[in-house]
Amino acid sequence: MSAVLPAQADAATKRVDHLTVADMVEPGSRVLDVGCGDGALLQLLAERRNVDGRGIELSQAGVNECVARGLSVIQGDADTDLVAYPDDVFDYVILSQTLQATVAPRTVLEHMLRIGRRAIVSFPNFGHWRIRAHLAFRGRMPVTEALASAWYDTPNIHFVNLVEVINARMETAVALDQAGRPVRVNAPWWFWNIFGEQAVFLLRRK
Questions:
Q1: CATH label of the domain that carries residue 73
Q2: Which of 36, 145, 157, 175 has the highest Cβ tally under 10 A?
Q3: What sign results for the dihedral spanned by CA atoms 66, 68, 72, 74?
Q4: 3-state secondary structure (DSSP) of residue 206
Q5: Confidence band, pLDDT 50/70/90 cuts, at residue 184
């Protein structure tokens, strides 16, 4: 049996989209993690990128877990509470696996790019070939680990079009396959959309 190197073991315990997000953040940045859950991403950013991190989380249980980790997190709702933040107070505002659960995704993204110089967004890809096949042969959207909600609880968002509507610039786009490996960078967008199970985008204002 081959030995597992420390770096490999560490990577195995992290969510693959979190690792991709961390690589997009400059060390020492001011970061707001919107819908930060249990604080795993904020903790990763603090450890690897030495960020000045803050979080906002809807569930009290999530806030409690974040505070237990020693993180600066408040309870709040992305759809209603981002308006209270002043302009340009953060270098990055992150929304990880949460955009599809917001009521007004356009408004949320606009506030993210107002209060942060850049925004990082990750979400499950509804255009993945497995989802297309499930829909074609069974007539309904699947419920999977990446898509944990039924179709009526998780509206499909055409993200690339939304980025154009809010007049933002897409600096980096990464599609991840089922194993968490990046889909080859030089592939056309339709290839990403079919074979990428998750997507991670780095945006900035034009």
A1: 3.40.50.150
A2: 36
A3: positive
A4: coil
A5: low
